[in-house]
What does this fold into?
Amino acid sequence: MLFKRDRRFWKRAPLQSEYDAIIIGGGVHGLSAAFFLARNHGMKNVAVLEKRYIGYGGSGRNTAIVRANQRAPETIPLYAEGLKLWPRLISELNVNLLFFNCGVLTLAHSEADLAELRLAAASGKFLGIESRILDSRSCRELAPALDISDRPRHPIVGGMFHPPGGTLRHDAVVWGLAKGASRRGVHIHQNTEVTGIDVQGGTVKSVETSRGPIRTPRVLVAAGAWSAEIAEMAGVALPVRMMTAPALVTQPLKPFLNHVVSAGAYPCYTNQTLKGEVVACGPMVFRPRASTQTDAEPLQRLSWALTELLPCLTGVKMMRAWAGPVDLTPDMAPVIDGHDSIQGFFLDCGWGDFGFKSGPVVGKYMAQFMAEGKKPKNLIPFSLNRFQEYRLLGEASTPHGYSPAE
Ligand SMILES: Cc1cc2nc3c(=O)[nH]c(=O)nc-3n(C[C@H](O)[C@H](O)[C@H](O)COP(=O)(O)OP(=O)(O)OC[C@H]3O[C@@H](n4cnc5c(N)ncnc54)[C@H](O)[C@@H]3O)c2cc1C
It folds into this structure.
C-alpha cells in the first residue's frame, strides 16, 4: 500500500460563533465521532474543542492494545466490529497506524481466573470471536520467556489466546483521525477549553470556552476521564471512579515476545514493539480528579510484575514512564448515550483503561445517533440510567479488567 506524503495533518480554522455540533475532547472517541459525522452524514459544520493538544488524554498515553475478547454479550459485537475497522481506516486515512496483529495472551493465575477466561472464550465463540484456552505449557510455547514455574508470586496455571488482537500506534491514530476529519471540513481547535455548558428549557444552547461562547444545538462529551467534570457543567452526574494507570517503556531489546501478554493478578500487561522496546501498563492508583501525575510506587510494582512474568527483563533499563487518567464505571462498561431530559446532550465516556480500541467503531455509531437523533440499537445497553435501574453489564471480570477495589 502506498502512503502519499502530507505536509500538514489538519488545517488551522477560525473559531466560529456557531456550529451544528461541538465535540468536547480531542481523543480517539471525539475525533472518531467528528470524522464519521462528516464522512457518513455530511455534517461538516462541526468543531472538536481540545483544551490542550490532540492526544493529550488517554488516547496519547495508552498501550494501544486492540482486541475483542470482552465478556458481556452486549460489548463483544461492538469490539469485534471495531477490530475489523482498523485496516479499512488505514487505507482511508492514508496514514500508517502500525497495526500489528500479534494476538493477545491473557494469563490465568488460579482456577477461578481460568473459569473466567473459559466464560469469556465461550461468549466470544458464540458471537464468532476466536479465543482458545491453553494450559501453562502451551502459554510458554507462545511466549517462551514466560516463567511457568512455581517461583513467581502468582504462578501461571493457564491462559486464553486471542489471535485477532494486536497493537497500533496510538498517536498515529489520533493524528490520522484529525486529518480525516479536517479534510472533510471539521474544525479542530486545540488550546480551547470548555468551561461551561448552557442548557435552557431542557435543550443545549451553547458552550462557554476559554476563547468565548459558541452556540450549538448538539454537544458530545468525549473528554475521557475529564468527562465527569464536564457533564457536571450541564448538571449531569456520572457514576465514575477516577484512577491513573502507569505505563513504562524499556530500552530496545532483541525480539523475544511475539504476543501481547496480560496478567490480571499483578495486574500488568505488556508487549514488545516493532522497535524492540517492551511497553507495559500496571496497577492503577485512585485519584479524586482526572490526573496525569506519574507515581513511583505503581511503577515499582509494575517493574516487579514484569520481572516476575518475564525474568529475562531483570536488569533491563526503563527509558520512559508516564501515567494516564482513566474513569471506571461500576460495571466497567462505558456510558454511550444521549441524555433523556437534555436534548442535544450526548455522552461517550467511562472507558476505563480499555477505550482506545473502541474509538472508531463507537464514533461511527455516535455520529449516526447525533445526526439522525435515534439511538442505534447496539448502543442501547450502554445507557446512563442502567446504573439507577440496576441493569449493570457483565464486564467487571473482563480479561484485562481490574476490580474497581484495586
Ligand atoms: C496507561 C494507559 C494504558 C491504556 N491502555 C489501553 C489499551 O491498551 N487499550 C485500550 O483500548 N485502551 C487503553 N487505555 C484506555 C484508553 O487510553 C482510553 O480509554 C481512551 O484513550 C479514551 O479516549 P477518549 O477519546 O474517550 O478520551 P481521551 O483520550 O482522554 O481524550 C479526552 C480529551 O479531552 C480533553 N479535555 C478534557 N477536558 C476538556 C475541556 N474542559 N475542554 C476541552 N477539552 C477537554 C483532554 O485534554 C483530552 O485530550 C489505556 C489508558 C491508559 C492511561
User: Anything to note?
Assistant: The domain at 21-81+83-93+170-239+331-386 is CATH 3.50.50.60 (FAD/NAD(P)-binding domain). The first strand starts at residue 21 and ends at 24. The radius of gyration is 21 Å.
